[in-house]
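Q: Protein A?
A:
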Amino acid sequence: MLRLVCVLWLMACATGAQAQEARLTLGGPLAVNPDVLSFGGGTWRVPKVMRLAQPGLEALGEGGTYRVALAWEILAELIHADQTPDLLAAYPLNDFLQARAKAGGEIIVSLDATPLFLAQNPGAAAQADGPGWARSPIASEAEWALIAEHTVRHFNRLGVDPIIEVWNEPDHSLTGRIEDYIRLYRATTLGARRANRATRMAGPAVSDWTALTPDGRRYAEMFFAGAALTPVPQLGLSRLPVDVVTYHSFNRVPGQHHARVMRDIAGLTQRYGYAMPPVINSEWNIAATPPYPEGDLNGEFPGAAHVGASLIAMAKAGVSGQVFQMMVDPGDAGYHAGVLSLAGTPRAAYHAFDMADALSTGALIDVVSDSSVVTALAAQRDGQLRVLVAGFAPTDLMLIREAMEPLSIAQPQLFHQLTKIPAQRMVGFFKGKGRPPSDDPQAAEALHIGRESFRTELARREIWRAGGQVTLALPRPMRLVSHQVIDRGTAPKGEDIRQLDAQTNKMLRDALTGAGAQLRALGVASPWIQTYAAELTQRVDGRGALARMPDSARAQLTPIDHGWSAPVVARLDAITQDQRARLDQPTKGPAASEHLFETRPYALHLLVFEP
C-alpha cells in the first residue's frame, strides 16, 4: 500500500499541472445552527480603528458570535477588584457588543489575565503573550470571583447575556497545573453565577483540541475530569457547569478536524456525565502568527478559500458558533489576520464571510463531494438555491498535523513522546525516505502510519495544484442567476490594500487635524470638549465622551464628530463595494440539471439558482 501511495504522489508531482475534476451532489437537510455561517470575530486589544470599522463589520449580517478578551484594557489595569465596574464603564467596545447582541449575536467575554495584585507569581518575565504576573495562577479565589461578578453585572446592564469563557489557551498561557485552571474556573463560576444564576460558563479554550499538559495528559479530558469532581456548594452545584465547550484551531485541515473534535467532545461529555453542550470554535484562522513559509495565506485569496472551507466543515460537523481571529489586523508586522486591515480596508476573508452569510438565513442542505479539496454547502430560501463551494488545498503543515491527530487523541502519552522530536526532523521524515526519528518501536510504527496517511492526502492535493473542473448536479433544471468568485484574479491584493490604507490614513489625519482646530476654537474651558479631544487622540473614537456628556455639549460636538468620521466611513464603504463588484462573474444560459465551472486550488464560489 505504501509503495502505491508513493507512486501516486510522485506521479502527481511529476505532472503538476494535471487538471482534476470534482462532482458535487445535493444531499439531505442539515439540522444545525445556521448562525455558525454568520460572521463572528474576536480581538485581543481593542483596535484603534474600531469606530471606523464597526459599520463594515455590522454590514456582514446579523447573528454570529463575537469574542472580546478583557486582559489588557481591564484586567491588567486593575489595582483592586472593586475598580472593575469603573474600567468596564469606559470599555471602548461596549456599544459595539450591545448592538451585536441586539442584532441576535452571541457574545463571549474572555477573562484571560491575572491582575498584578492577584498574582501568585508577580514576576515580570515574559510568559506566552504577556508578562509573567498576567499569566500567573490567582492568589485569591474570592477576589477573582468578585471581578467575574462585576463583569457579568456590567454586561447584563447593557442588555448583553455573555458567555463567560474562563481564560484563553490555558494549556500554554496559564502557568501552573491543570488543577490551577480548575480552581480558576470554579472561582469564575462562583462570581459569575452570583451576578446571574443563568450565566453560561465556557472552557477550556485550549489552543488546539489536542493540547497536552506538561506530563502528557490531554488538557481537554483533564478539564472534564476535574470539573466533574469539583462542587460549588455556595451555588448548590455538585460539579462545575460546562455550558459551552470552546476550542481553537490553526493549521488544521477543515473538513476532517472539526468533525473529529465534535465526536471527541461527545465522547468526553458522556464519559464524565455531562449533557452534550453547544460547541464554539472561539478562535481560528489558517495560521496563528507570522512568518508563514507558504506566504501571506491569511491576508490574501487563500484566506478566503480557507474561511469558506472552514465554515462548511463546521456547519456539517454541528459546531454551534465560531469566532474568526480576528476582526481587524492586530498591528504586528506581517500579521494580516483580520477581515479588515488596520485602516479598515476589507481583505479577501471579509468577502468570504459576506458570501457565506447568504446561506445563514436559509434551510441548509448537505452537499456531497467526491473530492477532499472541493467542499460545498447549500441553502434553500424563497425559491432560490444558494450553493457555497470552497476549493482549498491544505498546506504541508496541515497535512502533517492531520496525519498525527488521531494518535494525539487515542494515545496522548505516545503523542507527547513524539512532540519532543525537533520539528525539522519530523518534517524531513514525512517528506523524505529516511528512518523514523525515534528508536522506540511503538513510536516508529506510529510515525510510519502517519507518513503513509500524509502521502495519501498529499497525492490528492497535488492533482489540484492547477485547479480543475467542478460539476454541480442539481435536483431539477435550474438557471444560474448569480455567480461570485474569490480567487487569485478577483481578490484584493496585498499591495492594493497597502495603497488604499495609505490613502485612508492620510484622509483620516487631515480630518482629525480639522476637527482639532474646531475643538480649539470652542475653547479649552469645557471639560467635555477636553474629554472628547483626548478620546480622539487616544482611540480615534469620541463616542464614549459623547455618550456621557449633557445634551448642550453634545449639540456643539455632534457636527464636529460627524464631520471627521462620516467621510472616512463613506470611503471605506465605497472601497468595499468596488471590491465586491469585482467578484461578480457573467452568467447566462438556459436552465440545466448540471452546472459546470472551473475552480482554482484556492477559490470560493457562491452560486445562486432559480427555477
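Q: Protein B?
A:
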Amino acid sequence: MRRIMVADMGDRMKTLALLLATLALPAAAAEFSVSGASGDGRIIVIVSPKATPEPRMQVDLNAPLRSPYMFGATIDGVKAGTAVTVGADADGWPVKPGALPPRTYTVQAVLNRYETFKLANGKTVKLPPDMGEGQHWNVKPGNLYSKPQLVTIAADGAPVAIALTETVAPIVRKVDTEFVKHIRIKSELLSKFWGRPMYLGAHVLLPAGFATHPEARYPLMVNHGHYPDDIGGFRTTPPDPDLKPDYSERFKLAGYNRIEQQEAYDFYQKWISKDFPRFLVIEIEHANPYYDDSYAVNSANLGPYGDAINTELIPEIEKRFRGLGQGWARFTYGGSTGGWEAMATQIFYPDMYNGAFVACPDPIDFKAYTTVNLYEDKNAYAKPGLVTDLERAGLRNYLGENLGTIRGGNQMEAVLGDHGRSGEQWDIWQAVFSPMGADGYPAPIWDKATGAIDPKVAEYWRQNYDLTDIVVRDWSTLGPKIAGKINIYVGSADNYMLNNAVYSAQERLGALKNPEWGGEFAYGERAEHCWNGDPTQPNAIARLRYNSMYLPKIMARIAATAPEGADLTSWRY
C-alpha cells in the first residue's frame, strides 16, 4: 500500500478529503471504437495500468493477480471499413467496461479471426483455426492487433478509438536435424469430421545409430502434452555461454533458462551413450480449432482424434522410422494435460500400449473436478453454507494461499470467446467431454455467468470421460488388459488441486479385484504442479527429465511382458 506523507493535521485532513473525493468519482463509462476489423472473430480489448510488455502479452489466466483488464465482443460478418463498438454490453474481466476506474492506461486490441467449418453432421460453426502457434490468440498468425496507445479514460470521456493496423507474422517451421524429424500427415478421419483437410503432426526423436543400424526396430515412447514446437528437453550443444540468465517466478530460481539448457544437453549425452537403450520418442502436434491439444480421444465436438492418432499417425511413424509396431513395445507418458492423455490412451486403447506414466493429470475422477463434485454439487463457483456461500478456489500455491477462483477463471475465458471459444482450460475440457449442443458448439457443463451445473451434461461426462468411473465400470473386461500398466504421480500441493481427483481414484481403483489394480500411486509432499514421480529431485529439475525418468520401469516391464520370440536385441546396440 502506498503511503502518503503529510506535514501536519491540516495536511492530513486535506489529503483525506482528496482521497474521499477520488473514491466518490463515478466509474468510467468506457467505450472502445475498433476499426480495421472485418469478417468473423472475437475482438479483445486489453486495458492495463502497465506499459510493458505490450498489453496483449500481459494476459495470463494462470496469474490473474498480474493480468490487466480485458473486454471482449464477437463480430459476425462485419464489412470492411465498419467500426466495431466494444462497450457496455461487452464481456469483461474483472469488471464490465462501465465499471472501469478512471485513470490513464495503455490500451491495445486484438482480433482473433474465425473461419467457417461445415461439419459432417450438417452443423456449421465459426472457430479460430490453428495457424501453427498452438491456439494462442495473442500471437496467432494472421490475427490483427493495434499498436499500444496511452489513453486517459474519464467518466464522461468520448469513445476510445483503436485501429487494428498490425498483423501477426507466420510461424517459421522447425527443420529436421540428425536426431529430430518432423512429420505431418493429412488425417482422413478428421478431415471427414471437419469438412476440410485436417492434419496431424509429430516431432520424432531418433535413437543414436539409427542410420547405421538399418536392421534395428525400436520400441516407441509417446510423450503426451501441450502443443510442442519441437522435441522438448533435447539439445546437442552445451548451454549458450551468452544466454542472459532469467528468473523463474514459479520455482524461485535465478538462471532457470540456463538450467533448462544444461538438462537438455545432459539428456543428449545420455541419449548417445553406449549403454543407453535405443527407442523412438514422439511428441504429437494435434492443435485444433478449440485448443492447442485434442486430449487424444474421440470427441463429439473435436472429432475422432483418438482414432486418428492411434490408427493413422502412430502406424505411419512406426512405418517410416522402423518401430516394432507391437503393443508390448509401446508406452505413453506425460504431465498435466499429457498425464490425462497418457491414462486415457491406455484405457481406450488397452492392447496398443504396455504402460502409462501419468503425472499431475487433469481431473481423472469428476467427483473431484478440481474442487467441484460434478455429480453432487449444484454450483461450480460457490460452496453453499447456512447463511453465506464460499467461493471455490481455482488456483493456489504450495502454502494453500488462494491465487484465483473458478468463477474468475471462467469469467476471463468468457472475455476471450463465447460458445466455448476461448482456447483456454475450462473451455477445452467442456469441448472434449460434452455432447454437441443444438447450435453446433459444446453443450455447457455449467452456466458461465452463474456456475449452475447441468446434471444431464455431467452424466454424459461420467459415461464417456470420467476415467476412474469407466475403469471401475468396465473392470471385468479392462482389468486383464490394463492391470499393472497405469502409474499415477501428483504433488500434494498441486496448484490446480488436481491431487484431489487422484486421491479419489486411488481409493476406488486400489480396491479393484480379479485382477488387482497393480498400478502405482505416489505423491510429492508440498510439490506443486507438475510433480512427476521423482522424490529425489525438486520439481524444477524432475519436470525436465520426462524422456528418461521412467525408462528403468519401462525396461523392466518389457523384460517381464514381451511375448516369446519378441525382438529384444536389434535395438540394444
